[in-house]
Design brief:
543 residues; alpha/beta; ten-stranded mixed β-sheet; two-stranded antiparallel sheet; 14 helices; 15% strand; globular
């Protein structure tokens, strides 16, 4: 066991340096227990054997500016908001693994700070590392908080090479890693505090949102409360059908982009001008992009305009933009994936769909990287591997092979009765400003759940909130800061179901916008008068 106690970097010029925060006192008894937990045998606590590799008391560790920013952004994507902090919360850090290759890190707060609960902060993108910032929102809130690497080592955000001819790694990535690491965490928590957590929660977005859906569908006893943001219900088709479609829209030859992210303000202004007022409020937020009919041809360069100055788009760029907004179709014009990029999500495109101008940046944009590495290594069980020309992949012809892998990767089951029977609760949030995954995918899946189980039954344990302008992880054109975790705890532990979620801007924003949203399918509509940034100017309406 080691003790990590750090202060501010000495290299900061003295004129600008902030006073080093005092290293907090760590109770000797807490440090002793952190040391002792290193000897705990966890070979029999999970479905397969595990080992604790190291423990350390972390106290006074100063966060870098990048880490401070990520703490806040993580809190947004986990529905558990926090303001910026400069020092990691004091905790006992326990690192270990579960066979065959799931690495985990469990952060145990001081005994007087522990709220008696366990949280799993699920890894996102294609995982591949045991993150440090991802556990901080939970830890800051008093949760014993765990994360894992998804069962493999990889380069963020979309490295699929680890999946090459490795079905076990794909199973771990899809759902098993969270299950077995949660089993280990509960045993460690019980030993460390002398009692187990009274309730357990899981939170995440994107692939981390899938983690919540997977646990509800496959391991309903693991968690009492589940928070899901921006899940990818049709995960394998998204990677195998939509990412290649987007990548080839922007990179027609698979190598050189016809458009970069410096075009985003132009596109977003045009879209907003065309469709913002459809919801009755010209507030810079498109409430439902499905109601918008927008033709990118309006941006085609006219006499006297300069594409180089981002005043307009050339013909190739208009074609690319039209394709981005269109459902993927085959050579006969038949749709093979139902969820295009939503109009109004443009401010979320940088790095996800469009590259920055200038020299190529490795791994950017995500759609290009995800298409190439996904089709080579993950989308089908007998993946083709390195050197495969992903631009030649034919989704329709290969659909049977895609479907086979989807049975592992996709959290698309609609019978959630086992989770309901055990008293579990789940809150799902998805934004219409999400460039990576359309909220329509989540809406359609949720409609199928309601059809299968009955709307009354579903309302007893699952709520979906669809938020205009909210981006994939953190940010958006509309208010995007919200506290779902407190609402989920009240629902789980006090049986008080949320009636709404209040969305707001970042603290300190002026003017501050706030707006209440309601469980789907209820809508939040502008009353037609009043401050468009004030929640009292909106009312709950039927769809």
């Amino acid at each position: 066991m080691t003790v990590i106690m750090t202060a501010a970097l000495a290299t900061i010029p003295s004129a600008q340096a902030e006073p080093a925060p005092a290293t907090p006192a760590v109770p000797a008894e807490f440090a002793a227990r952190c040391h002792a937990i290193n000897n705990l045998n966890i070979e029999t606590v999970a479905d397969t054997p595990g080992v604790i590799v190291s423990t350390a008391v972390v106290a006074g560790r100063v966060a870098s500016p990048q880490e401070r920013m990520m703490f806040v952004r993580r809190s947004h994507s986990q529905g558990n908001p926090m303001q910026e902090i400069s020092v990691y919360p004091t905790h006992c850090k326990v690192e270990g693994y579960i066979t065959p290759s799931v690495k985990f890190s469990l952060s145990l707060p001081l005994s007087n700070a522990w709220n008696g609960r366990f949280m799993l902060a699920a890894c996102d993108a294609w995982c591949g590392k045991v993150g440090e910032d991802i556990v901080v929102p939970g830890l800051h809130g008093g949760y014993a908080t765990l994360t894992n690497d998804g069962g493999h080592y990889g380069r963020a955000p979309f490295d699929g090479v680890w999946a090459h001819n490795n079905q076990q790694a794909r199973v771990d990535f899809a759902y098993r890693a969270n299950h077995v690491s949660a089993q280990a965490a509960k045993a460690i928590i019980s030993e460390f505090y002398g009692k187990g957590p009274h309730h357990s929660y899981i939170a995440g977005f994107s692939k981390g949102g899938n983690a919540g859906l997977m646990t509800v569908q496959r391991y309903p006893e693991d968690f009492d409360g589940v928070f899901v943001k921006a899940p990818v219900v049709h995960y394998n088709p998204k990677n195998a059908a939509h990412f290649p479609w987007l990548a080839l829209a922007v990179y027609p030859d698979g190598k050189r982009p016809v458009m970069a992210s410096d075009k985003i303000p132009l596109i977003h202004r045009s879209v907003t001008q065309a469709c913002d007022a459809l919801d009755g409020a010209r507030d810079g937020v498109i409430d439902d992009p499905r109601q918008c009919r927008y033709d990118p041809a309006i941006l085609l360069c006219k006499a006297g305009q300069s594409e180089g100055k981002n005043e307009c788009l050339n013909g190739a760029q208009v074609a690319a933009l039209r394709k981005i907004y269109t459902k993927p179709t085959n050579e006969r014009g038949e749709t093979y994936f139902d969820y295009p990029v939503d109009i109004g999500s443009e401010m979320d495109w940088a790095g996800s769909i469009l590259p920055p101008p200038g020299p190529a940046v490795p791994g950017i944009p995500f759609a290009l990287t995800g298409a190439a590495t996904g089709l080579r290594y993950m989308a089908v069980k007998d993946n083709p591997g390195p050197g495969y020309d992903w631009t030649q992949f034919h989704y329709v012809k290969e659909k049977a092979r895609i479907d086979e892998m989807s049975r592992t990767l996709d959290p698309d089951a609609i019978d959630l009765s086992a989770f309901h029977a055990r008293g579990g609760k789940m809150i799902i949030v998805h934004g219409w400003g999400d460039a990576m995954v359309s909220a329509a995918m989540t809406i359609d899946w949720f409609a199928e759940v309601n059809k299968k189980m009955g709307a009354g039954t579903v309302a007893d344990f699952v709520q979906l909130y669809v938020i205009p302008g909210m981006a994939h992880g953190s940010g958006g054109t509309g208010p995007f800061v919200f506290d779902a975790q407190s609402a989920l705890v009240r629902w789980v532990e006090q049986k008080v179901a949320p009636s709404q979620l209040m969305m707001g801007d970042m603290p300190g924003t002026a003017p501050m916008r706030q707006r209440a949203f309601y469980p789907w399918p209820a809508l939040s509509r502008y009353k037609g008068k009043g401050d468009m940034g004030a929640t009292e100017s909106y009312r709950r309406t039927a769809p």
